[in-house]
Amino acid sequence: MQIRRFNKFLFLVFIAISSVAQAQTGTSSPYSRYGIGDLQTFSHARNAGMGGLSFALREDSTIPDFINFNNPASYSAFKFTSFDASIMGSYTSIKNSRNNEVATNASVQYFGFGFPVTKWWGGCFGLKPYSSIGYGMSDSSSVSDSLSGTSIPIKNVFSGKGGLNQFFIGSSVQPFKNSVARFRRSEKYKALLAEKDSMQIQKIERRLRAASGFSLGVNSCFLFGTLDRERRIEYHNSSYFDFKQVNSSDLGGFYFNLGAQYSIAFKKKMSLVLGAVFTPNTTIKGSQTNLAERFQRIETQTGGYDNVKDTIKYEKSSQGTVTLPMSFGGGVVFKKAGSWQIGFDYLQQSWSNYRAFGQTDALTDSRRFSGGGEIGIGKDKILGRGKTVLRLGGYYTQTYLQLKNTQLVDYGITFGVGFPIARKSSMLNLAFEVGERGTTANDLIKEQYVNMRIGFTFNDKWFLKRKYD
Fold first, then answer.
1. CA 384, CA 421: separation in Å to the nearest integer?
2. Residues 6 or more apart from 387 whose CB is under 8 A from it?
3. Cα–Cα distance measured from residue 40 to residue 53, given in angstroms and rounded to the nearest whole number
4. What is the pLDDT of residue 282?
5. Which end of the chain is more exposed for a tag (fewer CB within 10 A), N or C?
6. DSSP characters over 13-33
């Protein structure tokens, strides 16, 4: 039985890896042309339903497990072996002061595999997108022909694709978990008990209970991917050759992020969880290829092709680095185990320190505020399953884009629902985000979007030693 489950898991992992690798472009935003593209902020369908709330989210025994990628300190709470995967579809209205277009996208978001190592130690690994590039836009203008003295209309076309993925391995410990029980088995406890020193016993146990809620975690990540950007100048005149410039960057490197959580238990299953995350400045290596060509577009019944006249510039594999910024954040969650929880997150990223092959971009420091909650409805064991969970949240972000002296903001509301499936430890999570980014002022672009996420969490007790054959 265990072998059969493990084979199914390997099959799911293979499908997930293949899908993520082939479906990286999860955006159609013109703003993804800057920096390393659109950052993939929401990592889990459950988080997304609560406005992205994650830093202080920590599992309990009633609401089914999930993998909280955003704070590795949460891995020590695993009670089951968990497999997580998600897909996303989006509908976006893109408009400026002159035009209005609609774009749709679908992509695989992530897969993750988490497991308890001991009662106080948990591990995790997975693959998820870090950023996405996917845009295509154009504008019309004109240039002056110095020989004829005439004005020649041209079309400027900008396009891009690609993005960065991250494969991560994480670990978390809760070093003082069950410390009271260990103390009561110790020789020191027996000695204090023999001396009838109840005050000293209570003092030690209070200190151990306070420390037992503390967890630390780390994600070690490998970033990899290709960023392709192209600019074309098209004359649509047989007397002139068109021009295109292609920039392609291949990037790869390691980085890590740290997390901490502290849980304070109260009576009646109530608790307060504090969370914090930190990622230091990271420099990853890469190579860059620049190509500039003159060409003539040949149209055919099958779509056409570029007939290259000559190559103006070709620089292959120029080595360099990309500096990603430091970030830090914190959150708080107040909850009743198995019933409801509500919380708030804050995240700041120093994108003004971003550098790519020695160049800066139109980036500035970003700040994100998010909050939300969830509530379980129904009884714990309806038809042998767990509770259905309703979620609501919102977010407000001062993004890392600063264009024409305007820092763009991104804000929206979210809602979601979780359905128990198969058994109460597995769930189907749905989340919806309705939001807006940018503005039409100063000839910028406004994006109004609706995202839908579908996440699957499968939990079971694997790798257990058999008691009976």
1. 10
2. 62, 63, 338, 376, 377, 378, 379, 380, 420, 424
3. 14
4. 92
5. C
6. HHHHHHHHHH-------GGGG
Is residue 12 over pLDDT 70?
Answer: no
Give the separation between CA 250 and CA 271, rounded to whole angstroms.
46
Q: Are strands 305-324 and 355-356 parallel, antiparallel or unpaired?
A: antiparallel
Q: Which residues contact 443 (CB under 8 A, 6 or more apart)?
A: 96, 97, 404
Q: How many domains does the chain have?
A: 1
Q: Is the pTM of this model over 0.90?
A: no
CA distance 301 to 125: 48
**CATH no. for residue 226?**
2.40.160.60
Q: Distance (Å, rounded) from C-alpha 45 to C-alpha 87?
A: 9
- For residue 345, give its domain range: 2-177+213-460
C-alpha distances (whole Å) from 316 to each of 159, 163, 301, 303 are 20, 20, 34, 29
| Cβ partners under 8 Å of residue 23, min gap 6 | 106, 107, 108
User: Is position 442 within any domain?
Assistant: yes
- Model confidence pLDDT, tens digit, residues 66-115: 889 999 999 999 888 888 888 899 999 999 877 888 888 888 888 899 99
Asked if 74 and 58 touch (Cβ cutoff 8 Å), the reply is: yes
Report the pLDDT value the prediction gives residue 25, as an integer from 0 to 100: 56
- Supply the mean pLDDT for the chain: 85
Highest mean pLDDT among 238-242, 299-303, 339-343: 339-343
Q: Give a yes or no: residue 233 inside a domain.
A: yes
> Is there a domain that residue 185 lies in?
no
pLDDT in tens, 115-174: 999 989 999 999 999 999 998 888 887 777 766 667 788 888 899 999 999 999 999 999
Helices (H), 111-247: 179-184, 187-194, 198-212
Place of tokens 């570029």: 306
For the cut 50, the answer to whether the pLDDT of residue 3 exceeds it is: no
